Amino acid sequence: MNRRLTDHQIRTTCHDLLAQHGPAITGRYLRRTLRQRYGAVGKTERVFGIWRELAQRLPRTSSGLATNTAGLHARLTAAETAAAEATARAELSALREQAHQDKWAAQIDQLRQQLAAQPGTFAQIHTLQDQVQRLSMELMSARAMLARYEEANELLKP
Length: 158
Description:
The chain is mainly alpha-helical and 158 residues long. It has 5 helices and no strands.
């Protein structure tokens, strides 16, 4: 059934929406509200024409703008405060990290100096490394000889 909306129905709905939400609602929302209330959405051109007419008649008060500006200013101040606090935390964190790095660098340097102050340590380490390398070579040689011996035994078996 084709239902025709009256201008009064459209105007009433538009007035209600303007009072609740102001002129910032979408056309889809307006048409959805008309469908919910009256079961029809009306012709797009006619509905939007009435909407534009009523939205243009809204009083433009400077007090509403001042309130909005004050709210925006408060939000800006809060954002600037939060940004300053975040910057301060980041700087403190960077200082702590630098102190941590300096502490460990100093400790490593101190240990290196202690090691260098012990003259026999480097020579002893070098001697032990040479001994490990020599013993590794001897082990490889012994394993090779054992492998050859086992091969010879396998060949001699009847």
